[in-house]
């Protein structure tokens, strides 16, 4: 169900859109329907069908930047009711992501609203799944499931088909993400600027090919600020890294501050359980840290349980002077 208490703009492919309140829907026979949307002009017809729920959605695979779904507005409640959005990434995956070549792949879901987004399953995202930014007030993402495990199938070159499939890319303040699941081939969380509470989430690669990159702050670029972060009660498994702060080598006029980690569990990290590095470059850290991004007041509170796989390292810190 999608409801608004203020003007909002929603662009998306859908099976139905609720026009009744939850109470009204429960006490009347629900009309079922199917709508096919090929362009924005088809949305009005789909909405006019007055279906009672948003159902399963299969997006068309096409080579463009996306995003494939946008919510933009204030005080919006999106309730997925356990339905599934399928991005059909398998038709576009080619071992390259969004920054390393290959065919152009669309970003999947962009949230620019305040309010809530909950109870949706996402599978087969072509690349990054949730992009969150520009919310005017608190946005809470609750109980969503992202499963890109099909993207771990190996290509002939031995690499996973899917790449750059971050579950949550955040550049916003006053964001809460909680009670959600992420199975992918990149960062579970990538906080690029702003503030967040990341609570009680499950982050994983897949069992036979650890490839998740864990919960990340960064990579922090020139001019970006992250401050006021709580990362608590999360579980990271089958991943290269667990808890990470990464700042771009040579970046300036940026900062990361007031971050608290508590009650998190990292199991058998393939590379690093906890990693803080100031030498980051995409895919190939320089090994020479720089000081243009200040890092301060990073707290590990209570109990955080971290283990590394054979050949991995529980803690790695490489900072400038």
Automatic annotation (TrEMBL):
It comes from the Eukaryota. This is Uncharacterized protein.
